[in-house]
Specification:
By secondary structure, the chain is an alpha/beta fold. The protein has 3 domains: 87 residues, NAD(P)-binding Rossmann-like Domain (Rossmann fold); 208 residues, UDP-N-acetylmuramoyl-L-alanine:D-glutamate ligase (3-Layer(aba) Sandwich); 133 residues, Protein-Tyrosine Phosphatase, Chain A (Alpha-Beta Complex). 31% of the residues lie in helices and 22% in strands. It contains 15 helices and 20 strands. The protein has a 6-stranded parallel sheet with strand order 7-8-6-9-10-11. The protein has a 6-stranded mixed sheet with strand order 15-16-20-17-18-19, sandwiched between helices. A 5-stranded parallel sheet has the order 3-2-1-4-5.
């Protein structure tokens, strides 16, 4: 991909946009980086782009900048139907996601993980398993470092372990993971995608360029995943709770096992995991199966799985104060994720939920909440929906801030209870992102101590 002297527009200046702009400029492109936000609302690193020769257009987009470009690179947070992007496409300007651009410079193997819930845990665990096997495994994409940041000093032996979202996948053309894991599928991001089917189709693009020499790792217990993988040309390996009839990864007698070509081996002892929740164990099962397909030996997989500490903001144990445990699952940004978070605990629970509603039916949380949740502390724009959904099951306390919610939960909790942040919503009404929300929760818990 020739960049020298080309006019490239980078849209969106969060992590991926900053990385892409610097990468492109270093390869001789004339880069214009644009964002609707003013400089004061953007990361401080935006100011360093000028030293790379990047031109900034902030506080709005200019259509003429897009239509005059030779290439437009889009960050995940930018809507794909942005009018300026539509104008660029109409003029024949190539428009692609940051992961698509980075892929065209990648020399190693790509392993990509998508799904509605569990991507971060599975991606991080897969990277740990490959690292334990001595591989040059680089973890990033939608978590941690952008794909572009992982390219430095790569070799043909490098394995890029990427979490990929629907926002990233909808902007791909040649992106071709050797291993593609699709964990689960439920309604999410319906505030951005026009329909559930559009969201699911974006996810399924992970298989678009795979061939018979590649692998698709699929959730055997999710019909939606299996249906979207029907057209994939790759080899398939499923994972699920029960032993399959043929090959696949599964749990049996307290162990995670893998059966391939009639031979069964143990990947790890489920009873020795450090993470709460059956869904996190399933994420590690998927990671173990993927790691084995990529050549990691079972002993390395077991060592990494049993020592895996989890991912920040994913059922993260924060503290115990006066006999009450506090868990941060700020990354539970949809209804299905919140349900799995609730089901990870027997109770009693004080649930902090809410934020910006992005689809789904909160009434689906009534069943796991009944007899388990003592009260819901409702925050953010979704408070009316939460009051409607939970009132038949338990008290709902509207709160104006995270501080008020944490203090309210402490007042209602007794020793032995758990306070759980599982929002079921995005964070953008009150916080910069889910990580900012999780850090705010942890800071308030720290003040209790």
């Amino acid at each position: 991909m020739e960049l020298e002297g080309r006019r490239v527009v980078v849209v969106g200046l969060a992590r991926s946009g900053l990385s892409a702009a610097a990468f492109l400029a270093a390869r001789g492109a004339h880069v214009v980086a644009t964002d609707r936000k003013p400089a004061a609302d953007l990361p401080p690193d935006v100011g360093t782009l000028a030293s790379h020769g990047v031109e900034l257009e902030l506080s709005g987009h200019r259509a003429e900048t897009f239509t005059a470009a030779d290439l437009v690179v889009v960050s995940p947070g930018v809507p794909w139907d942005l009018p300026e992007l539509q104008a660029a496409r109409a003029r024949g300007v190539p428009v692609m996601a940051e992961i698509e651009m980075a892929y065209r410079f990648a020399r190693g193997t790509v392993a990509a993980v998508t799904g509605t819930k569990g991507k971060s845990t599975t991606t991080a665990a897969l990277g740990s398993m490959l690292a334990a096997a001595g591989r040059d495994a680089r973890v990033g994409g939608n978590i941690g470092r952008p794909f572009t940041d992982l390219l430095e000093a790569q070799t043909s032996d490098t394995v890029f372990v990427l979490e990929v979202s629907s926002f990233q996948l909808e902007g791909t053309q040649t992106f071709h993971p050797h291993l593609a894991a699709f964990l689960n599928l439920s309604p999410d991001h319906l505030d951005r995608h026009p329909s559930f089917e559009a969201y699911a189709s974006a996810k399924a693009r992970i298989f678009e360029n795979q061939t018979a020499g590649d692998w698709a790792v699929l959730n055997a217990d999710d019909p939606g995943v299996l249906a979207r993988a029907e057209a994939a040309r790759s080899q398939r390996l499923t994972f699920g709770a029960a032993p399959p009839r043929g090959d696949g990864a599964f749990f049996e007698d307290g162990e995670a096992r893998l059966r391939r070509e009639g031979r069964t081996e143990t990947l790890f002892d489920r009873r020795r995991l450090r993470l709460p929740g059956a869904h996190l164990a399933t994420d590690l099962l998927a990671a173990g199966a993927a790691a084995r397909l990529l050549g990691a030996p079972p002993e390395a997989i077991a060592r990494a799985a049993e020592g895996f500490p989890g991912v920040e903001h994913v059922l993260e144990r924060v503290a115990e104060v006066d006999g009450v445990r506090y868990f941060n699952d700020s990354k539970a940004t949809n209804v299905d994720a919140a349900r799995k978070s609730l089901e990870a605990f027997a109770g009693p629970l004080l649930l902090i939920a809410g934020g910006r509603y992005k689809g789904g039916d909160f009434r689906e949380l009534r069943a796991p909440a009944r007899g388990r949740v003592k009260a819901v502390l409702a925050i953010g724009e979704a408070r009316p929906l939460l009051i409607d959904a939970f009132t038949p099951v338990c008290p709902v306390v509207p709160c104006d801030s995270m501080a008020e919610a944490v203090r309210g939960a402490r007042a209602l909790a007794a020793p032995g209870d758990t306070v759980l942040l599982a929002p079921g919503c995005s964070s953008f009404d009150m916080f910069r992102d889910y990580a900012d929300r999780g850090r705010a929760f942890k800071a308030e818990v720290a003040r209790l101590g």
